[in-house]
Design brief:
This protein is of the alpha/beta class. It has 13 helices and 11 strands.
Length: 300
Amino acid sequence: MADGIVSNIQKFSLHDGPGIRTTVFLKGCPLRCEWCHNPESQSAEPELIFMENRCIRCGTCLTVCPEAPEKKAENPSFEFARYCRRCGKCVDNCPTTARQIIGQRMSGDEVVDAVARDRIFYDQSGGGVTFSGGEPLHQIDFLAALLQTCRERGMHTAVDTCGYCPGKHIMRIAALADLFLFDLKLMDGEKHLRWTGVSNQLILKNLQTLCQHHDHIWLRIPIIPGVNDDPQELESMAAFLARLSGIRQINLLPYHKMSIQKHHRLGRKYRLAHLDPPGRDSMEPLTRAFTARGFHTVIG
């Protein structure tokens, strides 16, 4: 079976499909959404993170790092990301685990064996395994092999995708996944390019294709204040989706700030920290564009 880079395997997930699930996060994503909740999965390669709250400023990392331009114990938070070759020496020698590498190469058998350990919970709750990211279709060979093996072992599978991939990738796994969680950010092409770094034309085309070949799709829309929460944008989305088949549910996902620390640990600036998460009262009216067209719409 093919192998790939996994950033995390999260057990007992309750928001990535029906029932109790295990979510496998694969690394690599072509989008650069400003609000990204899993920035550690954007790069296709393993990455070094730094948890400053654990650092005791002992300078061990600088002493063992073969790439450190300066050996200054008083500045252990120098730009490691700029020079890092992921040798792991700072991780292995840090006494407080302030430095860690996110992402490890795993074989398909290792992943399937890990998720199968909780099979009893899937069977009792109607759950299963969700492959997320990043963008799981970025590692298409790995993903296809995992889906096939999970299916052979009788585990329900879901794929959480942004839809930005070659159309042939969508077609390759359409028959292998029991459920698709398809993310839709914006209908306005210029705004989509501005906020995610890519055009939405391929995404919309792939969603249309998927709806022609699969009848279990949950459409997930992150609601970002000031970006895509205006009535015109949501009406445009609802009108587009109403022309498609196979969409069983629409999830409106309120913006949150839980990824701020993740960005900081990667040495990145989070530009939307000034935004406040929308409350239930402001989310409820946003469902109307979808419920008016007969969609089962859920907040969260």
